[in-house]
Each structure stands twice: as structure tokens, then as C-alpha cells.
Amino acid sequence: MSEQPTDENSPKTIDEAITACEKIISRHVLHSRIMLVLMGCTLFPFYYAFKVLEIWRQNIVGLGNMGGALDPEPVKEFIAKAGIYPYVILALFLATMGIIIALYRFHMNEIVRNEQIKIGFWRIRIAARNTTSGFQTEVRQSLTKDAFQFSSKGNKEKGKEIESPVQGHPASDFATAVFNKILDSIDVTVSKKENK
After folding, report:
1. How far apart are CA 95 and CA 101, in angstroms?
2. pTM above the 0.70 mark?
3. Rounded-to-integer distance, Cα 147 and Cα 116, Å
4. Which residue has the higher pLDDT, 128 or 166?
């Protein structure tokens, strides 16, 4: 049998693997904090954009009513078009926040996954280091069995849960959660119809 080529930087012992998991976790913690800062920094420009639109609308309406300082036709056209701008800004805000939240959730999921892998390595290390007679049976088996298996989502009793098509987007996640609650409350039974 041929061995697969290994990278020189890949961990070769359990302790090195645990250290590698800790490095990956710390990197994802840093990136998740950056996403939180970006989320906070994103709020200000969109708030500022809404305020600027509000000031423009007030100033233009005020100048248009001051006895012909501005031509009323362009003012009416601007006000008609300016009604769409808040919706455009809101759509951009939701898209931007959705992307940032999705990236934040990705980093949080990676942290959870690597924590589980690190715990699996700890379990294997404990099983490998203890060689006493009582440790050879069920204790070792319970430590090593399913050491690296974990479920990131809870299992549903009634059936499969529908996943959000756009993970991390607040509107998509909310709609999916509502839809899953509706599906959980509905019981479907199938019965054959008798022909007469």
C-alpha cells in the first residue's frame, strides 16, 4: 500500500493536532470579531445616508415653497424620485448586513467544529495514555468511539428541517424558521380511499 504524501507542516502527534486546532480557533475568533466590528461600522454610513436624504427632502421642499427660488417642476420630479431612495438604501443595508452576518456565522460554525475536533483529540490522548487494566475495556471504547462525530444541528423528531436558501440573511432565516414552525405543527396522514 502506498502512503499518501503528507505536508511538512501537518501535525504528526496528537499534541500538535490540538495546538493546530487552537491556532485555527484563535484565527476564526479574530475574524468573527472583525465581522462584529464591520457590522457596527456598517450601521453608521446607512444611518448617515438616511439622514442626508431627510435633510435634502426638507431643504428642497422648503426652497420650493419660498416664492419661486427653485423651479417647481424639477423639485417635484426630485421629490417623486427621492421616495425610492430610502428603499434602495434599505435594500443595500439588508444585503450588506446579511453578507456580514453570514460570514460571522461561518466563523462561529468553524470555531464550534474545531472545538469538537480538539475535544476528540483530547479523548484519544486520554485513551492512549492510560494503560491500566481497568482502562482497557469500556472506558477506552467510550472515549474513542465517535470521538470526531458531531452534529452541528439538532435532530428533529418529526422530520427533516428545511434549510435557509441564503444562510445568514436575516429575512431568509426568519422566513425559514417560520416555515419550519408551520411544518412542525402540521400532521399529515395518508389513507387509501375505498372505491364503491
Report:
1. 10
2. no
3. 9
4. 128
